[in-house]
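User: Can you model how adenosine-5'-diphosphate sits in this protein?
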Amino acid sequence: GRLLDLVVHSLYSEREIFLRELVANAADATDRRRFEALTDGALALPEDAKIRINPDKEARLLTITDDGTGMSREELVSNLGTIARSGTRAFGEQLENAKPEDKPSLIGQFGVGFYAAFMVADKVEVTSRRAGSDEAWCWTSDGKGAYTLAPATREKAGTDIVLHIKEDADEFLDVWRLESIINKWADHISWPVTILKEDGETTANKGKAIWRRPKNEITEDELNDFYRHVSHNFDTPWSTLHWRAEGTIEFSSMLFIPGSRPFDFGQEQSRDSKVRLHVRRMFITDDATLLPSWLRFVVGVVDTEDLPLNVSREMLQATPVLARIRKAVTSKVMGELKSRAKNDAEGFEKFWENFGSVIKEGIWDDAEHRTELAGLARFRSSAVDGWTTLSDYVARMKPEQEAIYYLTGDNADIMAKSAQLEGFRARGLEVLLLSEPVDSFWPDRLSSFEGKTLRSITQGLEDLEKFALSNADALGEAADLEKLLPALKDALGEDVSEVRGTDRLVGSPVVLAASASGPDLQIQKLMRRSGQAMPETPPVLELNPRHPLVRDLAARAEAGQSVEILGRVLLDLARIRNHPARDAGVFRRRWYC
Ligand code: ADP
Ligand code: MG
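Assistant: Here's the modeled complex, given as structure tokens:
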């Protein structure tokens, strides 16, 4: 009695689960009979084998009927009459005392799903006739610790489970409610599940467990339908992964990488993968996080035999089985991405345009896959049209170049024209143009790629001098900035953290750089835009010593004249270059003053 009480009250969080358990048992029994019939033709299933659900509101009875193996008298006793049949009373104590992570295997060992029926019924009658036998038996219990057995009659082999529905469980006599439960939890049971209505029978489960069928028997249309069902997309998948894992861990899986980016992608509440977990075809949950968050665009199903059906959500978090599945599934998807990147460059770019920004989150937060993911990543660059990879960049690097240079911003086309790039262009150095918000973060974590460090060009650069300018003569003499730099810093005060000369400008007089002690300029911009408090770290003003304006200013400083007015204009000019839209107004106001 105590044990039953425990099962009924502490195993499941939702009462509706009883139906999943009973339908799963019915489906298992039908599967078993099909299997037994392979060696004994006399046990063959009827043509229209199915699982029937029959609610009777007046009598307050809910009946679940199947054409499965049925149970003999002995089987009723040992399967239903002996709770925790393979163990002892100790099960109860173990369950009570078990740590959450041990509960799944305990429940798996003992098999107690049937008793979930007592969550909604105060009496359960099971009438069963074993396939191959002509006697039937009825097992009855009120779920308080005792049961009775009596001879019964049943026309054919199979089982009827009759639930006397509790006062407070009326909802489970409602056809509509039953349909929605089957839909949610048992849609992919491979046998039809029908519900008896006043005007006849309806089949409540649509799908077949398509992922369990051999590949060559699945049509393109069926695949696409299923993809649409799980993804809520209307396109066709970019990639379909359908395989069965065998060995230390067994599962069947059908996963899809969508062919387009769902329009609301990126606005979801959670970054968790929604791949569905099934146990023996029965839907368990879609929040088992079967894939890392940087693969959250992947949709589909993983269906395993290695977990008990009645595994609870709490238990799911702890079981090592899931960790193994997760690893296997992740490496399968990675394998597909790598092979497509290698063998289908054009197709891969399509994928990258949809989901590249999500993959880049993995470079940021997944140390294990960081390098692999960086290898897959595609970038815009100052040196080539279209997409390039880090490996290609490294192959194009100058022999004396040590770092992979990049610039972050909002729009690669605008960035390509940025003053920040001038000095690099003039020296034949390539710069990657990173234009997504996530680009402000991951380069910090990828300390190097193929032995080369990554370096933001807005963070001061000291080593540009060593690369020869392609047309040094045309650029004219560099001014001596010795007097100008301190004079300008004085004049501009707290608006800049430093004023210094730079080699990275050619046609422009000035540019802003991030102060080495503060965050990168683009990060500061993003944080402010998202409304986050961001300490103002004044930028560094860098001067191009070869530019006529700067040469003129340097001459004034040498002569002891004020540099304040022209200095302010240069600072505003630099700011406009950095935030074209935002600061134009500021510039105009100052200019006219
Ligand atoms: P589990 O399904 O994990 O074994 P359950 O408590 O759900 O545990 O069921 C106990 C056992 O009762 C099953 O293993 C099966 O042998 C038997 N059983 C339950 N329902 C049926 C059914 N509809 N037909 C035949 N056997 C059944
Ligand atoms: Mg069961």
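A couple of observations from the model: The longest strand covers residues 121-129. Residues 21, 25-26, 29, 66, 68-71, 79-80, 111-114, 159, 309 surround adenosine-5'-diphosphate (ligand 1) (CB under 6 Å).
User: Helpful, thanks.
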